[in-house]
Amino acid sequence: MKRVFLLIAWLACVLASSFAPADEGMWLYNAFPKDKVKTQYGFEPAQDWLDHLRLSSVRFNNGGSGSFVSPDGLTFTNHHVGAVCIQELSTGGKDYMKSGFYARSQAEEAKCPDLELNQLLGIEDVTAKVNAAVKPEMSTAESGQAQRAAMSGIEKECVASTGLRCDVITLYSGKVYHLYKYKKYTDVRLVFAPEFDSAFFGGDPDNFTYPRYDLDITFFRVYENGKPAHIGNYLQWSATGVKDDELVFVSGNPGSTGRLLTMAQLEFLRTVDYPARLATYKRRIAALQKFAAESKENARIAKEDIFRYQNSQKAVTGYLGELNDSAFIAKKAAEETVLKAAFASSAEQNAGRDPWKAIASSMQMYNENYLLLSYIERLRGFDSNLARNARDLVRVAEEKTKPNAQRLREYRDSNLPSLEQRLFSTAPVYKSLEIVKLTDSLTQMDEELSSDTEAGMKVLNFRPPWEVAEELIDFTKLQDVAVRRQLYEGGQAAIEASKDPLIVLMRNIDPDAREVRKRYDDEIDAVERREGARINSARFGQSGFTEPPDATFTLRLSYGAVHGYTEKGRQVPYFTTIGGAFQHAAAHGNQPPYQLPPSWMKAKAKLNLSTPLNFVSTADIIGGNSGSPTVNQAGEVVGIIFDGNLQSLPWNFAYSDEVARAVSVDARGILEALRKIYGADALARELVGGTNATASPPAKQ
Residues 569, 505: one domain? Predict the structure, then answer.
C-alpha cells in the first residue's frame, strides 16, 4: 500500500510540472491567484485593480469580448466579432466590409440590429441553493431536472430584484454554481471599422499563424435612453505600448475548453464529434464558395459565413490534432490514473458508483443519439436563420405556457428579453443565401439520416432537398419582422393556426426533437453533472480549487509575458510592424488575400513604418477571447487579442508556453492607423483623452 501512495505522489509531481506551466489559467475573477502572479512577476493586482478591469470588460453576445475605452460608452472589439453588424448595416448598395466605416459625428453612428453587450457587475456562489433542490431518493434524471429548475428559479428571482441579466453558470462539471449578474446594453452603434482587407489581411492562409499584420479592430458605442452611456469604469489607452518580457493581462470570455474532461469524453470528441463537425464545415465552405463565385453580390452576402466556417474548420482541425497525439493522450491517461487513486481514498467513493464508468456509458448513449440530436434538435440539418427563427417561435409559444422552472433552459423568463431581441432583429435576410445553406444542410441530413426515417419523412418525404429548400424559403414570410412579432405575441393559438411552411415544418418535427433533447438532458447531461461533480470533489478535496474551471463563455482573467519564440530553429520576434504589412503584401504580389486596401497604399508615405502592429504573449486564451483587451500593470490598453498561432490550438485541452502564443493588435499600431490612414483624429483623441470628440454639438436654443 505504501508503494502505491508513493507512486501516486510521484505521478502527481510529474503531472503538476508538465501540466501547469507558469502562465496557465483562464481564472475566475473571484478566485484570481494574486499571490502566484506576485511570485512569478513581482506584481500583485489589488482588488480595486481587478474590480476596475472586470467592470471595464464586456461580452459581445454573438461570441466575442471587448472593453469600454472612454467614459462616453466607446467600446472596442475585433473586426471579426463586429462583422455581423457591419454586414447587416451594409444595405442600399453600401458595402462597409469592403470600404470600411467611420462615423465622424455622433449622428452618423449606426445602430446594430441585434447586438447585445454584457457588463459583469457581480458574482454570487449559489451552489448550495442549486444542490438543495436535489433529494437523496432522486434518480440521475430527476436530479438534473431539479437542478435546472432551481437554476431557472434563482435567475428569475435575481432579475425581479435587480433588473439585470442573471445567468447561473455551471463550473467544474456541476461541482460549483455561480450566479453572474450583468448589465445589458442593447442599443449598440457602429463607430469605426477598417476594411476587411486590412482587418483580415492574409485571409484564411494566415489565420491562426504568426507573424501577422492585421488591423482586426472595430469600435462601437453603447447608448442608453438615446444618448451615449456614461461609463464609470473604462480602460485608459497606453502611451508607450509594450516591451519584450513585459507582464500583460487579458480580460475576456473564453468560449469552452476541455482540460478537465475524462478520457471517455475526449474519445467521444476525437472519434465522433470533431470528425462530424469537420465534414460539415468542408461541405458548407464548398457550397458557399460556389454561390459566392456567381456574382459580386453573392460574394458580399456570403463572405461572413465563409469566414466563420473556415475559422471553425481550422480551429477544430487543431483540436483534433491534439487528441490524435499519442504523447498528449498518454499524459491525460496518467493524469486520470492519479485522479482515480485520489477518488478511491475520498468520501465520494462511498456512493458506490464509478463516475468514470458512468460517464463512459453516457458517452455511448451520446454516440447512439448523436445524429438525431445534431440534425433535428440542434438544427445541423436546417442551416438557415429563418428556420432557426421558426424553431424559436414554435418552441417559445409552448414553453411560455409552462411554469418557468419546467421550461427548456433557453426559454426561461430571464432569457426571454435576449431571445426577443434576436427574433425581432431588423437585419436583412437574403433568401438566395438561405436557400443555398438550407439545401446543403438538408442534403447532408438526408445522407446521414435517410429520408425514409420518421424524422426524414416529415421533412423531405422522398423529395429532393433542393426542391424542399426552395419551397420553404420562397413561401415563408418570416423574413418580415412584423410577421415574427405577430406569431410571437399570438402564442400557441397563432402558431397552431399558421400555414407558413417553416412554422409547419418545425411544428411537425418538434416532437422528435424534444424526445431526443430529453434523452440528452436526462441520460447524458445529468450524468456528466452528477459524476463530474464527484470527480472534481476528489480533484480538489485536499488542495481546494487551485485550478480554474473549464471555460464557459463567461469573464475570465489570464496573464503572461510578451515574448517571442523559436520555431524550427528560427527566432520569431515578439512584434511585427506596419512596414512589415507592406513587405508581406509585396512578397505575395499584392494579390488577395494579401492585398492592402487603397487607403493604406495612399497613406504609406506619411506612416511611421516601424510602428508595431501585432505582438504575441503567453497569456492563456481560446475562442471567445477575440476582442479581449490586453492591458499592462497600470491597467492600460496595450493591445487587443484577435488570434492565437496554430500551436495555441491545443490549449483547448492543455496549456503550453514553449511556442504557443496569443496574438494581439498593438495599441500603437491602432492609433497610427486611425490618425494617418483613416483620418479618424477625433476617435484617436477620444481614446487618448477619454472624451467623446465625435459627439454632435449641442442644439441651438
Answer: no
Cα maximum dimension of the chain: 88
* Residue 584 near residue 592, CB atoms below 8 Å: no
- Alpha helices (H) along 20-163: 34-41, 47-56, 79-88, 96-99, 127-131, 140-162
Among residues 282, 269, 272, the alpha carbon closest in space to that of 323 is found at: 269
Non-local CB neighbours of 477 within 8 Å, separated by 6+ positions: 483, 500
Residues 211 and 177 in one domain: no
Residues 272 and 340 in one domain: yes
Q: What is the pLDDT of residue 336?
A: 95
Q: How far apart are CA 694 and CA 74, in angstroms?
A: 11
Q: Which amino acid is at 15?
A: L
Range of the domain at 171: 121-183
Report the alpha-carbon distance of residue 518 to residue 653 in Å, rounded.
29
Domain shared by 328 and 421, yes or no:
yes
**Contact yes or no for 80/216 (Cβ under 8 A):** yes
- 16 and 45 housed in the same domain: yes
Decide if 549 is inside a domain. Answer: no
- Whether 698 is covered by a domain: the verdict is no
User: Residue 525: is it exposed, middle or buried by C-beta count within 10 angstroms (0-12/13-18/19+)?
Assistant: buried
Report the pLDDT value the prediction gives residue 675, as an integer from 0 to 100.
98
Residue ending a domain, among 512, 539, 566, is 539
Structural domain count, the chain: 3
Residue 433 domain-assigned (yes or no): yes
Confidence at residue 351, expressed as pLDDT on a 0 to 100 scale:
67
- Containing 7, the helix (H) or strand (E) segment is helix 2-19
d(CA 430, CA 427): 10
* End position of a domain, from candidates 539, 563, 589: 539
Burial class of residue 634 in the structure, from the number of CB atoms within 10 Å of its CB (0-12 exposed, 13-18 middle, 19+ buried) = exposed
The pLDDT value recorded for residue 18 is 39
Q: Give yes or no for a contact between 10 and 336, defined as CB atoms under 8 angstroms apart.
A: no
Q: Residue 222 pairs with which residues in a beta bridge?
A: 188
pLDDT score, position 632: 98
Give kind and range of the element (H or E) at residue 596. none
- CB-CB neighbours of 654 under 10 Å: 20
What cell numbers appear for 338 in the block?
492519479
Residues 299 and 347 in one domain: yes
Pairwise CA distance, residues 691 & 679, whole Å: 18
- Return the beta strands (E) in 486-538 as ranges: none
CB-hemisphere CA count at 13 Å for 509?
A: 30
Residue 627 lies in a domain: yes
Q: Closest by alpha carbon to 196, among 289, 302, 288?
A: 302
- Contact between 332 and 263 under an 8 Å Cβ cutoff? The reply is yes
Residue 345 is predicted with a pLDDT of 83
Dihedral in degrees, nearest 10, Cα atoms 416, 277, 272, 522: 10
pTM, two decimal places: 0.94
- The model's pLDDT over 197-251, given as tens digits with 9 standing for 90+, comes to 999 999 999 999 999 999 999 999 999 999 999 999 999 999 999 999 999 999 9
H or E, element range at 439: helix 431-449
480-484: Cβ within 8 A, 24+ apart: 481/424, 481/425, 481/426, 484/389, 484/393, 484/423, 484/424
CA angle 147, 64, 289 (to 5 degrees): 115
Low-confidence stretches of the chain (pLDDT beneath 50): 1-20, 693-701
At residue 32's C-alpha, the angle toward residues 31 and 37, to 5°, is 150
DSSP 698: P
Q: Are residues 170 and 232 in the same domain?
A: no
Same domain, 145 and 293: no
- In single-letter form, the type of residue at position 694 comes to T
